[in-house]
Design goal:
Belongs to the Gfo/Idh/MocA family. By secondary structure, the chain is an alpha/beta fold. Helices cover 34% and strands 20% of the residues.
Length: 425
């Protein structure tokens, strides 16, 4: 197995804890040989973790991608609105690219990146990690086998988790759509992609409703403060307390995303003075905290999707209803039950794998590296190529347009026709 060398562009949570972690766990498969990251502390951490010297550290993507090509691949895990330029430059320089989702909040940029991948004959794989999980792969396998006949309707729920909602979409980096992406694109393009993949058709029409219902100043409890540590009278009872989520969690599941100093003093300092210690009712957020989407596909099959920031856990549940049977699944418990009509229910086994997103994070990287090693397949169509991702991104754009227009039906073909789209799905 040939070791693949990589330039890491962006060393935040996904960059360090997913792609960087894969290289540390499987050094024979992948080696980080350079990093571009404006934050000096993050650069130093990556240097230590991957044994990089000072001449392998760069402050910007422009610096590293202006050099002669120095690796097999570029892994781009910058913020949403910073994907386009480094991706285009990396493809131009001959890198195969692994790009964090969403590709871009601009349809024109998405289409340009897909076209550039084809023009330069390079891989551009988008991190729609759910397709790479044993759970969703098994459901797709059942559907393809014909066990449930033709799909009539699918119901998919994304339960964001109250603590995840507060961390990422109220206090955190993705709390303002104009600076990153709308919630349906940033968080739920995974779900648009999965629905499109399972049904195996293009979506024809979409309508959507949703709003920022709860995390607003007028909903702040009496006695609350600007920050959780500012003598807030209700902090002990508040489920969104930063002290509860970050300081009292001994696993550091979320505190590692607010500071690199995981000592009690470091976490306390981040809560007291950083953005993650703010009261959730007094942040500058504007993304929705709940949304529903209704879809009709080309053959008449329908799907409904619900995203809610108000759930006790982070999970996805699905119900696939066909003409001959039904599938019900609970992703985080790795539970799949097949109900053939007129027969006994069948518990379906899906191998549990380690890693984030039910094993999808590692599955994505592994498949990307394998495709890079296949020199005859450069520029080919991987499971989540840019061209495959165009459809799910257009679905997300249409859903957001519908939501902003009060739930009007939006035809994907009309939305696509507004773009200079020459790629397939």
């Amino acid at each position: 197995m040939r070791q693949i060398t990589a330039v890491l562009v962006g060393a935040g949570a996904r960059g360090r804890f997913v792609y960087g972690a894969y290289a540390k766990k499987y050094p024979a498969e992948m080696k980080i040989v350079a990093v571009a990251e404006p934050n000096e502390e993050r650069r130093r951490l990556v240097a230590t973790e991957h044994g990089l010297s000072s001449d392998q550290l760069y402050e910007s993507w422009e610096q590293v991608l202006s050099k002669v090509k120095m690796a097999d691949v570029a892994v781009i895990s910058t913020q949403d609105r910073m994907h386009y330029a480094p991706t285009m430059k990396a493809l131009e320089h001959g890198y195969d690219v692994l790009l964090e989702k969403p590709m871009s909040p601009s349809a024109d940029e998405i289409i340009a990146m897909a076209n550039a991948s084809r023009m330069h004959n390079r891989l551009l794989t988008v991190s729609h990690v759910l397709r790479y999980t044993p759970f969703w792969s098994k459901i797709k396998e059942i559907i393809t086998s014909g066990s449930i006949g033709k799909i009539v309707s699918v119901q998919l729920s994304e339960n964001v988790g109250y603590f995840h909602m507060a961390h990422s979409f109220v206090r955190g980096n993705w709390n303002k759509s104009e600076e990153t992406s709308p919630m349906i694109l940033q968080k739920s393009c995974h779900d648009m992609d999965i629905l499109s993949w399972l049904i195996g058709e293009k979506c024809a029409k979409i309508s959507s409703y949703g709003s920022l219902l709860h995390f607003r100043p007028e909903n702040a409890p009496s006695g609350s403060a600007l920050r959780c540590t500012d003598s807030c009278a209700v902090e002990r009872e508040c489920p969104y307390s930063a002290v509860r989520i970050y300081e009292e969690d001994s696993t550091h599941e979320w505190s590692r995303f607010i500071t690199n100093d995981l000592t009690p003093e470091g976490i306390n300092e981040a809560i007291k003075n950083g953005p993650f210690g703010r009261c959730v009712y007094r942040c500058d957020n504007n993304v929705v905290d709940h949304q529903v989407v209704n879809m009709e596909f080309e053959s008449g099959s329908t799907a409904s999707f619900t995203m809610s920031g108000f759930s006790h856990d982070v999970s996805r549940t699905v119900q696939v209803m066909g003409t001959l049977g039904e599938i019900r699944g609970y992703m985080e418990k790795n539970e799949i039950v097949l109900y053939p009509y007129g027969k006994d229910a069948i518990d379906v086994s899906a191998a549990a794998e380690e890693g984030g997103h039910g094993g999808g994070d590692e599955g994505l990287v592994r498949e990307f590296l394998n495709q890079v090693r296949d020199e005859n397949n450069n520029g080919g169509q991987g499971l989540t190529s840019a061209e495959a991702s165009v459809q799910s991104h257009l679905m997300a754009f249409a859903a957001e347009q519908s939501r902003l227009e009060g739930g009007s039906s939006v035809a994907i073909a009309e939305l696509s026709a507004q773009q200079t789209c020459s790629v397939g799905s």
